Amino acid sequence: MSHGIKGDGTLAFGYNFDWQSRVFFAPEGTPTIVPTAFASQAFREAMDVFEDPAHATSVQQIARFVATSLNRCVDTDEQVCFSYTPLDTSCIYNASLLAAECLMRSDEPGHKLLATKAMNLVVARQREDGAWGYGDGASQGWVDNFHTAYVVLSIRRIGDELGWTDTAYRSYERGVGYWLSNFFLESGAPKYYDAETNPIDIHSAAVAVSTLAEINEVKMARKVAAWTCRNMLDTDGFFYYRVNGALVDETPHMRWGQAWMAYALARLLEFGSGE
User: How many Å separate Cα 70 from the centre of its chain?
Assistant: First the structure.
């Protein structure tokens, strides 16, 4: 669960519980970029459908939160990296790009430039083989499925919204190529890490399906969705948390699994309806 946190002309969202990440601790109610960015996306889509000025206001208020309340662990003429919360100074690539997505939806001068600069940093941090580590820290070099998908999708959205440079588009294509080549088995099973299959996590599956559908890899999205429904869907209608070889953790986590799979299958229906 998350709840809105209003400031001086700003809006953000945080969890209603203490949250410990691998990098920092966020007390209950701390605004964090992940739920805030998802709220921005929801308000933008609602604005387009319902034409309600209140939704447009929320989109603008969230963009102002990103621009004024998040720390910038990198801030140069060409690049910027936004923190995860107002309390930390971490440089986590997918989180900074989610902040950029909030900014790209804004009508305020300068916000779109900040979004482009955030994308520039992540493009510059891409490895030669096309992969991205989790972040800039010495202990953040691992490469996993769903964070790679987040990065690929954010770059696609920002490029489509604000315009592509040759460098950004080549980075996007290399990232998609690495992701497709290293994170899926022939069966459609989504690997957790690029070099390790297990554990197969429901979040990896869900984010893969939704991302693949949105970037027009619909055939692969259907393949991953089919594998997930065959292997991780209980007869009672919920999705299991993880499959690790012969061991199955059937815990039905609501936010991590159920909500994300509902979103993923809806996105597949939306983007795959024409094929």
Answer: 17
**What is the residue-level pLDDT of the chain in tens, covering all 275 positions?**
455 777 789 999 998 888 888 777 888 889 999 999 999 999 999 999 999 999 999 999 999 999 999 999 999 999 999 999 999 999 999 999 999 999 999 998 899 999 999 999 999 999 999 999 999 988 899 999 999 999 999 999 999 999 999 999 999 999 999 999 999 999 999 999 999 999 999 999 999 999 999 999 999 999 999 999 999 999 999 999 999 989 999 999 999 999 999 999 999 999 987 55
